[in-house]
Design goal:
The complex is a heterodimer of chains A (424) and B (380). Chain A is built from twelve helices and eight strands. Chain A has 424 residues and is of the alpha+beta class. In chain A, helix 8 runs antiparallel to helix 9. Chain B is an alpha+beta fold. Chain B folds into three domains: 111 residues, Acyl-CoA dehydrogenase/oxidase, N-terminal domain (Butyryl-Coa Dehydrogenase, subunit A, domain 1, Orthogonal Bundle), CATH 1.10.540; 98 residues, Butyryl-CoA Dehydrogenase, subunit A, domain 2 (Beta Barrel), CATH 2.40.110.10; 153 residues, Up-down Bundle (Butyryl-CoA Dehydrogenase, subunit A, domain 3), CATH 1.20.140.10. In chain B, a hairpin with a 2-residue loop joins strand 2 and strand 3. In chain B, helix 7 runs antiparallel to helix 8, helix 7 packs parallel to helix 9 and helix 7 packs antiparallel against helix 10. Classes of the chains: A alpha+beta (424), B alpha+beta (380).
């Protein structure tokens, strides 16, 4: 264990360490224990494809754990620090110059583990959360299915009770980094004779058990980060149910809330902040303008300034929405506002990368540093409005659940699921 | 749209809203539109009694804020005025006050400050010049030293409330560099000509300076050292402007959402159509983003944060551009009634369009951001 040498702990009137004391301690500890970020490399490997990167992320998480800086907002009894979002924010700011286990942020730390924390049994929390915070366990979401993404509650993977166990059959897709995960939150149908939301059950299942076949999906930028899984009589014990049997929608809704918050950039449960790898990091538009000889072009400066402003708005908006939801000033579905804003911000940035890079976005010498990424980023542009729930769904949620507008007609409302029409 | 107002600030909002409802409803704004002047002095006097020109000024100098953070109080007030597109030289006068308070190392202007705070005088920043964009630190208007006086020659235009202002804060070029002067509008050689304005009650004018002689005691701060005060004026002006714009778009959005519930077509409310719901979701998101950045900028300026300059320009870049887009979309949601004189939408569209244009366009502020961040990089 390498504890920070100099900085002392100062506590506030509530007995909690003050944010400033925590920040100073974190600063000292980070400098001594975490590796500084390497300079940008010419390596264009897509994110999360490299098994070594996962080993590395687990090691870095372990270093955080050993130093007493893992799980800042997780409760102490499950291995966390039990501190506030302000502490987490301070730590994140201090951590920016260092290599952090960013691969673990989504979905392990910011979506899956919070669901276990909110909805799991005491045994599940004690069993999994400390391992997650130690870097020993990576989690994944098994939500979307090949038959549909937005209509999550219309999923068809079944879990049938067989004595003390359940047998799971079906298929899941778009599971981020499932190949590197140990456990997955898997939403299944346990009763098809009731309307769709009432017959679902969430399981926490091992990813490397007999009965699971996993395949990696190749995306347009070459990344194979996402996976699809086929379940063929996967047997899991009843103790792996998260929440109630047939109460899976409650758990899933909580999961979607954490997902929107995480995708929007407002999760308090992350370790550090930034892109998961150099290949997906946003290009510095001012740098790109200089590199391409347009640093003084007024129209290019306008793009640079506008994108900068947009990011500042995003920061301010996340702060506003997260705080308002926490204080009950805004309803929970307001997380969809930051989810939607994230897509706008990301896509504007990519568009400006392409606009500024010009032809350098589509051709150039091998190993060219930044401009070449622009074209790669552009191919995945729509990822920002698809991943983590489409922006169309976000707009439905904002209009219906924040503005109170009438809900979209659903032909499957209150209809037993086995009587609902499905495509072929 | 600060969600965390203090109890005192909430009372202040209620009192302000009550006063505006009683004295400056939209019908009153429409009445003023027909007059030569955009507002009545007696109304501003009453506003001044409520502290509208005192919030930035320390108590010992005759001012006083609600929360201890005068600029935040002022932003709250600007937002309220934006909700009813009220007239008033709130931005103009307080920008002058901010400039005077930022440059206290020159001649004493405390008497003028007191009169501004009391509403006895109205001030405005004469910064734009014909044929130029928003370039406060390179004025063409000259001030030449002659013994114990300066002689000002040149033209300023797009001067807010020029026709009703008593004190002009003039940004000029001297041998020493950019210098600001506090010039009474009644000084010999000053000619004010009202110009047309898209806003019905927020008027502008051109001000000519033909051999205008002022004493050296008219200098604000030190000669040649106007840059810091000018930056402060710019920041305060943009903070108040974006806050006012946020008030306007939230009000427009409220009544447009209500319209979507009330208006039926094909037997269903507009609010039930997904194509329209999605546009409302976008508008809601942009409005919240506008509120968030406008408040972040106000807080940074209030705190004197090193980020204030880029945040202020970020606020203008975003709010300045998004607000007219939101209001135009709301016009679309209303249908044909939205482009009639009878409907109030155009009052708001006028105001947010004027606010987009003045004290730097979004485009000008984006270029400023690019310059600020590249300067930062050079220092680092």
């Amino acid at each position: 264990m390498s504890q920070a040498t100099a900085a002392p702990v100062t506590t506030g009137p509530d007995g909690m360490e003050t944010v400033e004391s925590f920040r100073l301690r974190a600063r000292a500890w980070l400098a001594e224990n975490m590796p500084r970020l390497p300079e940008a490399t010419d390596d264009v490997a897509p994110e999360g494809d490299d098994d070594a990167a996962w080993v590395r992320a687990r090691e870095l998480q372990r270093t955080l754990w050993d130093g007493g800086f893992a799980g800042i907002c997780y409760p102490k009894q499950y291995g966390g620090l039990g501190l506030s979002e302000a502490h987490q924010h301070a730590f994140t700011e201090e951590s920016l110059p260092y290599e952090m286990p960013l691969l673990l942020n989504v979905p392990t730390l910011s979506i899956c583990a919070p669901v276990i924390l909110d909805m799991g049994t005491e045994e599940q929390k004690l069993e999994h959360l400390p391992k997650v915070l130690r870097g020993d366990e990576v989690l994944v979401q098994f939500l979307s299915e090949p038959s549909g993404g937005s209509d999550l509650a219309g999923l068809i993977t079944r879990a049938d009770r067989d004595g003390d166990v359940f047998r799971i059959n079906g298929a899941k897709t778009w599971s981020t980094s499932a190949y590197a995960a140990d456990f997955g939150l898997c939403l299944t149908r346990t009763d098809a004779t009731v309307p769709k939301h009432r017959g679902l059950t969430m399981f926490l299942i091992p990813t490397k058990a007999p009965g699971i076949t996993m395949r990696r999906i190749t995306q347009v930028n070459g990344s194979t980060e996402f996976c699809e899984e086929f379940f063929d009589d996967l047997v899991v014990p009843a103790s792996s149910v998260v929440g109630e049997v047939n109460g899976g929608w409650t758990v899933g809704s909580r999961q979607l809330f954490h997902e929107r918050t995480a995708v929007g950039g407002g999760s308090p449960y992350v370790s550090g902040q930034g892109a998961r790898s150099a290949g997906t990091a946003k290009l510095d538009l001012a740098e790109l303008a200089r590199e391409t000889g347009q640093g003084d072009d007024p129209r290019v400066k306008e793009l640079v300034g506008e994108a900068y402003a947009q990011e500042k708005v995003q920061e301010a908006l996340i702060g506003r929405i997260v705080s308002a939801v926490e204080k009950g000033q805004f309803p929970g579905p307001s997380a969809s506002i930051i989810r939607l804003f994230h897509a706008e911000t990301d896509q504007q940035h990519v568009d400006y990368e392409v606009a500024i890079a010009g032809s350098a976005a589509v051709t150039g010498p091998a190993g060219q540093r930044s401009a070449g990424y622009a074209g790669q980023h552009y191919l995945m542009r729509q990822g920002a409005s698809l991943g983590g729930g489409s922006t169309e769904m976000a707009r439905n949620i904002i209009s219906e659940r924040i503005l109170g507008m009438p809900r979209e007609h659903a032909a499957d409302r209150d209809v037993p699921f086995n009587e609902v029409k499905r495509g072929r | 749209m600060d969600l965390d107002l203090s109890p005192d600030q909430k009372l202040f909002v209620e009192a302000t809203r009550d006063f505006i409802d009683k004295t400056m409803p939209l019908t009153a704004v429409r009445e003023l539109a027909k007059r030569d002047q955009g507002f009545e002095r007696s109304w501003w006097d009453r506003g001044a009694e409520l502290g509208w020109a005192a919030l930035l000024i320390p108590e010992e100098s005759g001012g006083g804020s609600v929360s201890g953070e005068g600029l935040l109080d002022l932003a709250v007030l600007a937002e309220e005025l934006g909700r009813t597109v009220a007239p008033a030289p709130l931005l103009a006068t307080n920008t002058v006050i901010a400039g005077l308070l930022a440059a206290t190392d020159g001649p004493d202007h405390s008497a003028e400050l007191e009169q501004l705070a009391a509403g006895e005088l109205i001030g405005t920043w004469a910064v734009y010049e014909p044929g130029s964009g928003f370039t406060p630190l390179s004025p063409g208007l000259t001030a030449n030293r002659k013994g114990e006086t300066y002689v000002l020659d040149g033209v300023k235009d797009r001067v807010e409330v020029a026709d009703q202002a008593d004190l002009l804060l003039v940004t000029a070029t001297t041998d020493e560099g950019p210098t600001q002067f506090l010039v009474p509008a009644a000084t010999d050689g000053v000619t004010v000509t009202p110009t047309w304005s898209l806003d019905l009650v927020r008027r502008f004018g051109e001000v000519r300076f033909d051999g205008v002689e002022v004493g050296v005691d008219a200098v604000v701060g030190r000669p040649g050292a106007a840059a810091d005060a000018v930056e402060r004026q710019l920041q305060v002006a943009v903070v108040l402007q974006t806050a006012e714009t946020v008030g306007a778009i939230f009000r427009v959005f409220e009544f447009t959402v209500q319209w979507a519930f009330d208006r039926y077509t094909f037997g269903r409310p507009l609010a039930s159509y997904q194509a329209l719901k999605h546009r409302f979701a976008d508008m809601k998101t942009w409005a919240e983003g506008s509120a968030a950045i406008s408040l972040a900028a106000a807080r940074a300026v209030q705190a004197g944060s090193p980020e204030a300059a880029t945040l202020v320009s970020s606020a203008k870049s975003y709010v300045g551009a998004k607000a007219p887009q939101i209001v135009q979309d709301c016009v679309q949601m209303h249908g044909g009634i939205g482009v009639t004189w009878e409907h109030d939408l155009h009052l708001y569209l006028r105001r947010v369009t004027v606010n987009r244009a003045m004290y730097g366009t979004p485009e000008e502020h984006r270029r400023r951001i690019a310059d600020l961040i590249s300067a930062e990089k050079e220092i680092a």
